[in-house]
Design goal:
Layout lengths: L1 H12 L5 H13 L1 H18 L8 H13 L23
Length: 94
């Protein structure tokens, strides 16, 4: 039975268990200090990650990732055209 509880810890940390299973897991944690520690620390970690601000993904980030991929030899075909800021404007003489 302990094996089953250990397998449910990740679902417990994410708050994905039913109330009955969560109560059963918590009561089992009173008997097993290792299980209790694992449940507590993993739930705190998940809560911290969920409360972190979302990273910003700017055009600069996109271009930096794209250049790293190109440097490693990856050939990509995007569905959208290249942005205008990648084009160099040449002076035109008349």
């Amino acid at each position: 039975m302990k094996d089953m509880y250990r397998k449910l810890v990740d679902l417990y940390a994410g708050g994905e268990l039913t109330e009955e299973l969560e109560d059963e897991l918590e009561s089992a944690a009173f008997q097993d200090p290792d299980l209790s520690y694992e449940m507590t620390t993993l739930r705190k970690s998940v809560d911290l990650i969920r409360n972190m601000p979302e990273p910003t993904f700017t055009e600069e980030s996109y271009q930096r990732i794209l250049m790293k991929l190109y440097a490693r030899g990856v050939e990509l075909q995007t569905q959208s055209p290249d942005p205008a800021h990648l084009q160099y404007s040449l002076p035109i003489q008349s």
